[in-house]
Hints:
Blueprint: H1 9-32, H2 36-79, H3 93-129, E1 133-138, E2 143-146, H4 148-153, H5 166-169, H6 173-185, E3 189-194, E4 201-210, E5 216-225, H7 227-263, H8 267-298, H9 300-304, E6 309-312, H10 313-331, E7 340-345, E8 350-353, H11 355-372, E9 378-386, E10 389-396, H12 403-406, H13 418-423, H14 430-440, E11 444-450, E12 454-462
Parallel strand pairs: 7-9
Antiparallel strand pairs: 1-2, 1-5, 3-4, 4-5, 6-8, 9-10, 10-12, 11-12
Helix pairs in contact: 1-2, 2-3, 7-8, 8-14, 10-11, 11-14
The structure holds adenosine-5'-diphosphate (ADP).
Amino acid sequence: xxxxxxxxLLWRNTLTLLAVQAVVWVVAVxxxxxxxxxxxxxxxxxxxxxxxxxxxxxxxxxSIGRQTRRATDAARRFADGDFSGRLREDAADEFRELAxxxxxxxxxxxxxxxxxxxxxxxxxxxxxxxxxxxxxxxxDQRIIRLNAAALGMFELADVEIRGRxxxxxxxxxxxxDAVKASLKSGVRHMAEIPFAxxxxxxELVAEPLTDGRxxxxxxxxxxxxxxxxxxxxxxxxxxxxxxSHELRTxxxxxxxxxxxLQETDDPxxxxxxxxxxxxxxxxxxxxxxxxxxxxxxxxxxxxSVLELEAISIASIIESVVDxxxxxxxxxDSSTPSGPEIIVKIEGDPRVQGTRPLLEQAVGNLxxxxxxxxxxxxxxxxxxxxxxxxxxxxxxxxxxxxxSEHLDRIFERFYRVDRSRSRELGGTGLGLAIVxxxxxxxxxxxxxxxxVGAGSTFRIALPAL
Length: 464
Ligand code: ADP
């Protein structure tokens, strides 16, 4: 806004009074030369006008002083960011213009500051809600800004860290090296930084901050935690390696015995080769069957189309016990009595599930209990409803599982005793399948064991 400054009020009034005085003096001089009375009168008039001039000037000076003070106070308030009041715009001449100009300036400043505040708070909310960590540093590696994700990533308390040196606040050598490299090179720098005091890993992108002339004045660091991603990649690689290994063993056996079969006419050796080939063929098909089952349960699309229905756990246990008993008796001709499986069911536990999945989960646990349950071959299967949960427990009285293995036995291909599992026809996938079925049906699995006293596996599912 343009402010037009005219001649001041004081100046204009003073000029007018001086002009009047000059005219009176001229008349007085003219008259005084012949007539002393007239000269006296004129002198009086001039004196009166002079006094009036002084009075007017004093009044004007006071008024100007007051208005200037008001304008100065208002300007000071505006400078301090207080836009609550405005100047009165009813004064005369320049002061009215000044008041209008100051008020307009205050209005513009007020709305600009409001807009800036809105922008700042929007920016702040965006930074705070980002899932990636963000750290802005100046050229001396002092922290300009650090968002909530970065605080969480480095487990920092939300104290005042603005202005402090990065290395003082975050002691991660890999992060400091990456920042130094970024500030030195002045170009985008990317790195993977392993955390010094944990197994976590983050991906870092450091983007240099430059001024208008392209001089590096700091750097902005974006951090994304990739620990879970790396874990998943490792699990996938391990899994592929495990599958290859598991398949290679029976295939090698089949190849070896098939070659032997080509070269021999000995009927005993031919029978032996045939047995080994059939057993390993069966093993291959068991592994592939279990892998396919796992893939089916894990596939979220297939899981969502599972047609769940109300299933009685008693009927599941009954059919599992029947099939495990007959299979165990048929497999082991040395113990014609078969395993002793005691069933205890309280009430009528029912869950939402599918019969094949539930039979497979309970079947795997009961088969393991018979396989690893020691010479007594005694197994207890219990089911009941506790609050809103159905629990199915399978207990054996065998050697048990040492605590260092207990946490890992639900991992694919994990076995406590690899050769014993193979000997018993295990694939190392049975418990992983049970875990995935329990999870798919909205439940969980737990294992409790004491070495020498046996193990209890418990599936908990939401009750109907
Ligand atoms: P496997 O096909 O080898 O039986 P599982 O996934 O069913 O594979 O079990 C993994 C491992 O957990 C087994 O190899 C065995 O070492 C151990 N295990 C499972 N159930 C029992 C049990 N009831 N008692 C002792 N060890 C068990």
